[in-house]
Design brief:
single chain, mainly beta, eight-stranded antiparallel beta barrel, 0% helix
Length: 116
């Protein structure tokens, strides 16, 4: 997993989270861009109107910061560390540990790659 553009153009959907229930009919969808190990992108769906993230990737580890606007009108931000896994069918999975700013609780989410 050392390709410096591994995540470029890939999309993922959240399949589970310890922070909230995931709406299987409208899960949060993440669009990743990557160049030279620098990652950025956006996300929307479920309870999120619009979200952005930026960070870095080293091999199978992602470190990033995020901010989003919730449908309730509130903003949320924080930091996360993800591990990239490869599923048996070849799609990527992201297993993420994250914390919201101002909250010491660590949450875990799992996202699966969407293949068009």
């Amino acid at each position: 997993m050392n390709d410096t553009d591994l995540l470029n153009g890939r999309r993922f959907v959240m399949i589970s989270s310890t922070a909230s229930a995931v709406d299987a009919d409208a899960p949060t969808e993440f669009a990743y861009e990557e160049s030279g190990g620098v990652i950025w992108g956006h996300y929307t769906g479920d309870t999120v109107i619009h979200g952005r993230f930026v960070g870095t990737r080293d091999a199978d580890r992602i470190e990033l910061s995020y901010v989003h606007l919730l449908k309730s009108g509130e903003r949320a931000s924080g930091r996360s560390t993800s591990r990239i896994e490869t599923a048996e069918d070849g799609r990527l999975r992201l297993v993420e540990e994250f914390q919201f700013e101002g909250d010491d609780a660590t949450h875990v989410s799992v996202c699966a790659e969407v293949v068009s």
